[in-house]
Amino acid sequence: AFAAKPGTAGLAFDPIAPVGRLVDEFTVPAGYRWQPIIRWGDPLFSSIPSFDFDAQTAEAQAGQFGYNNDYLDIIADPSGKTGVLVTNHEYVNPNLMFTPTADAAELRRRGEISKAAMGMAVVEVERRRVGEPWHYVVDGRRNRRVTVETVFELTGPAAGSDLVTTADDPEGRWVKGTLGNCAGGTTPWGTVLSGEENFNGYFAWAADTAAQKRYSGTATTTTETGWEQYDARFDAHDPRFVNEPNRFGYIVEIDPSDPTSTPRKHTAMGRFKHEGANVTIAEDGRVVAYMGDDERNDYLYKFVSKGRYTAATSTGARRRNMELLSEGDLFVARFTGNSPAAEITGTRALPSDGAFDGVGEWIALTRDGESVVPGMSTQQVLVYTRLAADLVGATKMDRPEDVEPSPLTGKVYLALTNNSNRGRTAPLDEANPITGNRYGHVVELTETAGQAGETFGWSILLLCGDPATTASTYFAGFPKELVSPISCPDNVAFDSEGNLWISTDGAPSTIGYNDGLFRVPLEGPERGNVQQFLSVPREAETCGPVIHDREGLVFVAVQHPGENGAVGAQTSFFPDYVAEHGDGTVAAPRPSVVQVWRG
Ligand code: FEO
Ligand code: CA
Ligand code: CA
Ligand code: CA
Q1: Ligand 1 pocket, residue 430 CB under 6 Å
Q2: Contact, 295 vs 396, CB < 8 A?
Q3: Is 197 in the pocket of ligand 1 (CB under 6 A)?
């Protein structure tokens, strides 16, 4: 029925039916095929052994594709026949990576494998002809793994401050590792940004200050990875490393063209559970980054650079552009509804003006690079950004995930994945109007004073859920009996025609279907018509969608397939679907980057 939409020739498809949550299949529309490009453990270098579940070492893992791929981009070179695949490796699932043990030495050895399985990967890809699917290149010149041991440079006003110094780094400028790398964005100058999201889980926290508590929650003495037992920098009780957690929670920038470059963490963009960052160029040439803090009742942020973008044709453009995110101002969003509070009932009934909508402002936390938050220094604003945002009256949101401006219209789309605390620890408001928001929503934001300006208009585009069972879902007014059920929006992307693509994380436990990837037209009579393109296998999350519709190609990172299973009791055999290896050992599901094409 949807196969012949005007202007969608590259990726015309009939939406798939939703797939039940116990089905261990990767499902694509009729006429499409899929194949992994690279899987956890695939070697990036010929000197590194092939994946062997039973012979894992930290040294091998540091040269292999990591675990739990999340953010993804496929950046083609001008020829279109070579390029790089860049991905985050957000976290590990030890229950699926290893057979159980209680041996302390073996647990420590596995801890080191886990450090090597996290971080990021840059992998060259190639193909014979433009438009064909890609394959990855062993020993590609740009191949690189970034891990929990890779050294990063801190940039911006908080670099070198006494909030970020440790016994190992008295200068406060050189941080070992990156943690919880979730979503991200590719900049107009060709670098990749990555959000350090759930970094808090890797530290044992003293939580003896309000600032620490705002990031850690309650005090802890142990962590899931157990690194703190032998690597003191993960123990914030240790007087030498009380500031180590202050060195995580940033936007990191990596240059995928130079495998020897030192990746950076930008303090000017603030510190929180960064989901990711997406950059666009404002009318005056400053660059603007949109960023979510993925926590219940946390905030939406925007960074505006001091410097202006240099066109790629100028000499030294890349070097200059790579300084843009080190200096600028940070803003946090306040949303104001235009309907009476009494009409926000918490049940999805639209207010009498027919829309959850209103205006908003970007409240400055810094101006000309200096704090404007009473009682907080610039360094404090950038390291304890959540506290600064609390003080200025920002709007508590339903877990801001990916937020991305449309390359066609400049309108900004914000995925709010869910919030069990809405209406309990934070009041209802018109931008977050659902009590206990179980299925999440998507907000459309229109800048009203230019892309770098300080006012905006907004309206809710989608109230997610299964329209067959949830009466008051909302799809921008499109007839809901025609749409695909969708729940817990997480990552967003655009195709070349400006359609929004949304991937989900949480559908199985909320609407009973596997997570997937969905297309939503934003303009014209089809606006709001959510159509499901693919479904990931059992207990997986759909991440990092990349839409190359002109080539008829779609890419996703399949994260944590079979995550509720265990070795010997697998619930997923993705992507190879071999129940047992030839030698009788068990088959582990493997997080993988998958490409989908017409064929
Ligand atoms: Fe790692 Fe907010 O998703
Ligand atoms: Ca309204
Ligand atoms: Ca995410
Ligand atoms: Ca997520």
Answers
A1: no
A2: no
A3: yes
